[in-house]
Write a structure and sequence with these properties.
Blueprint lengths: L6 E5 L3 H13 L3 E5 L2 H8 L6 E5 L7 H8 L7 E5 L4 H10 L3 E4 L4 H22 L4 E3 L2 E4 L4 E4 L2 E3 L3 H12 L5 E2 H9 L7 H15 L7 E4 L3 E4 L5
Parallel strand pairs: 1-2, 1-3, 3-4, 4-5
Antiparallel strand pairs: 6-7, 7-8, 8-9, 10-12, 11-12
Helix pairs in contact: 2-3, 6-7, 6-8, 7-8
Length: about 230
């Protein structure tokens, strides 16, 4: 993946960890930009084209959760949380704030690289496949180029993962997917942080935000989920 000249932002206040991560991924052909706190991260994404962020949780000035939450208001850059915290609540908070993946220190640099490449590949291929034409399904309309979603002509605000879930179902209407399939196809790399709960939580919020179209996302009990227009 490094041959595409992707730029990775490493946000961590520990100089040794920043140097360790930067040196390893630079050897794979990626460009690296660094930030020591969340506020600096926000400044950088406004002045540089960043393709993925490796984000530490515990940082001064503004921590990783706060920076991620503010960034997600305007940007959909893939984010992998990198932290020493292993508590489940921290993983869930990161995912709810908009993180795409989560890796806990200490970690293998090979695993980190694999997760980086999986997120870049998924994001790059997703944008390539879906940056053409408008998509419609019932009362749902999507402009993939602008990443805008409408229900009955009303603009709907979705997080990056909610949007990705929606597009996945729009590309496969009336096809049932179990939770493992959704984790693999939307989150990538047989995603495990949060497990099935991650899928269920995102489906719940997606249904709520899609208003009248929320009923299109049906639960197939004992199996998974399907996008199917309600028959009247």
């Amino acid at each position: 993946m490094g041959q595409r000249n992707f730029t990775i932002l490493v946000a961590d206040d520990e100089a040794e960890m920043t140097a360790f991560i930067s040196e390893y991924i630079e050897k794979e052909g990626y460009r690296v930009v660094t930030a020591e706190n969340g506020r600096e991260l926000l400044d950088i994404i406004n002045t540089h084209k960043i393709d993925l962020i490796l984000l530490d949780v515990m940082m001064p000035v503004m921590n990783g959760f706060e920076a991620l939450k503010e960034m997600r208001m305007t940007r959909k850059i893939p984010v992998i949380m990198v932290t020493a915290k292993s508590d489940e609540n921290d993983r869930i908070q990161g995912l709810k704030s908009g993180a795409d993946d989560y890796i806990i220190k200490p970690f293998s640099p090979r695993e980190l690289l694999a997760r980086v490449e999986a997120q870049l590949r998924r994001n790059y291929e997703f944008n390539e496949e879906n940056d053409t034409g408008e998509m419609t399904y019932g009362i749902i309309e999507v402009n993939p180029g602008a990443r805008k979603v409408y229900v009955n002509n009303e603009l709907i605000s979705l997080t990056r993962k909610e949007y990705d879930l929606l597009i996945h179902f729009l590309n496969h209407p009336e096809q049932v997917f179990n939770r493992e399939q959704l984790l693999d196809r939307v989150w990538g790399m047989n995603y495990t942080a949060g497990g099935h709960r991650t899928v269920d939580t995102h489906m719940k919020t997606l249904r709520f935000k899609m208003k009248q179209a929320g009923e299109y996302f049906q639960t197939v009990y004992g199996v998974g989920y399907v996008l199917e227009k309600v028959k009247t």
